[in-house]
C-alpha cells in the first residue's frame, strides 16, 4: 500500500510538471490553472502525510528505483520548461521527439494500394481520425509502375474526444524509406466539407488509376508522374475533365451552355510539364448556371465591400462598390453599362437593403466621359464623390454629389492659385500642366483634401483642400 502511494505521488508530481510545461509552451494559464492547483494541493497533502509518518518511523524512504524515477521526471520536464523559451537545437530536438513520428512506408504502390495504403501504414503507429480533411492540397509523385516517390500533404480531423488532430505528411524516397508525420501543428482548420479527404479514397475504389493515366504514360515516357487533390473544385471547361460515372458526364455536357461544374476532383499530371494538359477526374459533378455564378460572385463582392473602409472593384466586370460606413445597408455601385476599346460607360445604382435590390439613380454619372472608374465614396448617404480615369492613368476627373447621386457636378480645382511649384516638384522639372491626375478626396485634419499628381501612384503632388464640403477649394503650398 505504501509503495502504491509513493508511485501515486510520483505520478502527481509528473502531471503537475507536465501542466507547467504546457502553460510555458502553449499558454492557456486561465484554463489550466484550476486543475493544476487541485493536483498540486493533493500532492502537497500526500507529501505532508508521508513526511509526518516517516518522522514517526512508520514510512520507509524512497527505494532506488523510485528515486531514479523522481530524478528522471525532474530532468525531463525541467529541460522542457527551460527550453520552451530558448529556441535552438536542443529545444527543436525535444519538440521533434514529442511531435514527430516516422512510419515504415510499406504500401507504396499507388496502383495496388491507393492512398488508403498510406493511411493504413500510419494507423499502425498512431490513432488517426476516421473523418479527415485536407488543408490546401495533398500531392503524390509516383513512377510509371505506380511506386510512390514523394508525398506532401496536411490532413486534420477530430479524435473521439473532439480534439483537433493535425498531420503534416512528408515522404521523399531519395531521402528515406520512412514517412514523416509532424503532429500538433497550428492550422486554419475550417472542417469545411469541400475539403473532405474521403472522396479521394472513394475515387480509388471506383477508378483504375493505372488505366486512367495511361494516355499520359503511353505518350510521355516521364520519370515521374503526379497526383494532386485539393477537395471540391469548380471548372468552366470540360477539356481534360472526366467524370467517373455516367450521370456526371451528363453534367459535364451542360458546360456547352457556359457556367461551371463543381465536384471533388483529382488531377493526374507530369511535374514540370505545364505544356501537357493534366487529366482530371471529377466525382459527382454538379452543373452551375451562368446566372447562379454571377449571383454568387455579386454576393461575394458585396460582402467584401461591406467589410471594407474604401471602395471595392469587381475584377470580373469592373463594377465598383461602396457602402456608407455608418449605414452599411446603404450602398452605391458604378455598374458597367457598355465597354469599348478599353474604356467603359457606367450607370450609378443604389441599394438600401445591403445589396439585395439595386435601383438605377443616374444613367450618366460621368457626363458622357468614358474611361475606368477610379473610385466611389460617400461620406454620408447623400454626400459623395465618383472618379474616372483614362487607361494610362495620367488624367482623371472627379464628380461630386450632394443629393445621393441624383445629380453630379465636376470638381474643378483652382490651378490659377498655383503661383509657384513646390521645391520638390521643381527638382524634377515638372510643369503645372503635367499635373492632371486627381486622387479621390479624403478627410485630413477636418479638411477635405485632393492630391493632384502626374499619374496614379506618384508620391509628388499638388495639394488642394476644402473646408465647406467641396464648394470651394484652396491650393496648399507645402
Automatic annotation (TrEMBL):
Keywords of this entry: Membrane, Transmembrane, Transmembrane helix
Transmembrane segments: 32-53, 65-86
InterPro entries in alphabetical order: Sialidase_sf
Domain of life where this protein originates: Bacteria
Protein name per its UniProtKB record: Uncharacterized protein
Organism per entry: Enterococcus cecorum DSM 20682 = ATCC 43198
Lineage: Bacteria, Bacillati, Bacillota, Bacilli, Lactobacillales
Amino acid at each position: 500500500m505504501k509503495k502504491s502511494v509513493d508511485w501515486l505521488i510520483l505520478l502527481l508530481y509528473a502531471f503537475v510538471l507536465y501542466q507547467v510545461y504546457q502553460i510555458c509552451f502553449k499558454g492557456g494559464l486561465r484554463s489550466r490553472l484550476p486543475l493544476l492547483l487541485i493536483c498540486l494541493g493533493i500532492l502537497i497533502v500526500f507529501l505532508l502525510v508521508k513526511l509526518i509518518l516517516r518522522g514517526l518511523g512508520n514510512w520507509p524512504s524512497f527505494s532506488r528505483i523510485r528515486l531514479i524515477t523522481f530524478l528522471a521526471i525532474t530532468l525531463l520536464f525541467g529541460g522542457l520548461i527551460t527550453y520552451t523559451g530558448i529556441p535552438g537545437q536542443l529545444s527543436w530536438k525535444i519538440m521533434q521527439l514529442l511531435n514527430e513520428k516516422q512510419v515504415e512506408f510499406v504500401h507504396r504502390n499507388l496502383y495496388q494500394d491507393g492512398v488508403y495504403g498510406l493511411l493504413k501504414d500510419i494507423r499502425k503507429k498512431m490513432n488517426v481520425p476516421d473523418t479527415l480533411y485536407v488543408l490546401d492540397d495533398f500531392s503524390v509523385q509516383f513512377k510509371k509502375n505506380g511506386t510512390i516517390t514523394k508525398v506532401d500533404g496536411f490532413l486534420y480531423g477530430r479524435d473521439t474526444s473532439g480534439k483537433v488532430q493535425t498531420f503534416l505528411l512528408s515522404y521523399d524516397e531519395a531521402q528515406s524509406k520512412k514517412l514523416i508525420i509532424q503532429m500538433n501543428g497550428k492550422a486554419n482548420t475550417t472542417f469545411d466539407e469541400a475539403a473532405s479527404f474521403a472522396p479521394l479514397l472513394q475515387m480509388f475504389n471506383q477508378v483504375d488509376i493505372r488505366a486512367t493515366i495511361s494516355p499520359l504514360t503511353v505518350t510521355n515516357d516521364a520519370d515521374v508522374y503526379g497526383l494532386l487533390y485539393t477537395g471540391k473544385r469548380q471548372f468552366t471547361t470540360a477539356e481534360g475533365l472526366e467524370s467517373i460515372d455516367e450521370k456526371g458526364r451528363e453534367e459535364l455536357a451542360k458546360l456547352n451552355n457556359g457556367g461551371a461544374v463543381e465536384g471533388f476532383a483529382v488531377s493526374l499530371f507530369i511535374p514540370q510539364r505545364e505544356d501537357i494538359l493534366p487529366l482530371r477526374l471529377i466525382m459527382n459533378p454538379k452543373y452551375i448556371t451562368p446566372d447562379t455564378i454571377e449571383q454568387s460572385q455579386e454576393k461575394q463582392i458585396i460582402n467584401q465591400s461591406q467589410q471594407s473602409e474604401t471602395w471595392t472593384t469587381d475584377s470580373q466586370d469592373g463594377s465598383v462598390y461602396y457602402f456608407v460606413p455608418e449605414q452599411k445597408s446603404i450602398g452605391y455601385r458604378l455598374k458597367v453599362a457598355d465597354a469599348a476599346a478599353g474604356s467603359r460607360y457606367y450607370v450609378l445604382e443604389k441599394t438600401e437593403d445591403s445589396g439585395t435590390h439595386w435601383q438605377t439613380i443616374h444613367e450618366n454619372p460621368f457626363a458622357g466621359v468614358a474611361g475606368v472608374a477610379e473610385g466611389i465614396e460617400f461620406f454620408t448617404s447623400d454626400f459623395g464623390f465618383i472618379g474616372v480615369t483614362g487607361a494610362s492613368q495620367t488624367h482623371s476627373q472627379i464628380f461630386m454629389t450632394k443629393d445621393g447621386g441624383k445629380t453630379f457636378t465636376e470638381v474643378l480645382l483652382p490651378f490659377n492659385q498655383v503661383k509657384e511649384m513646390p521645391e520638390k516638384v521643381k527638382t524634377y522639372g515638372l510643369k503645372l500642366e503635367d499635373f492632371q491626375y486627381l486622387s479621390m478626396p479624403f478627410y485630413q485634419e477636418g479638411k477635405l483634401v485632393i492630391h493632384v499628381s502626374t499619374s496614379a501612384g506618384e508620391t509628388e503632388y499638388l495639394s488642394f483642400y476644402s473646408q465647406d464640403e467641396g464648394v470651394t477649394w484652396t491650393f496648399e503650398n507645402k
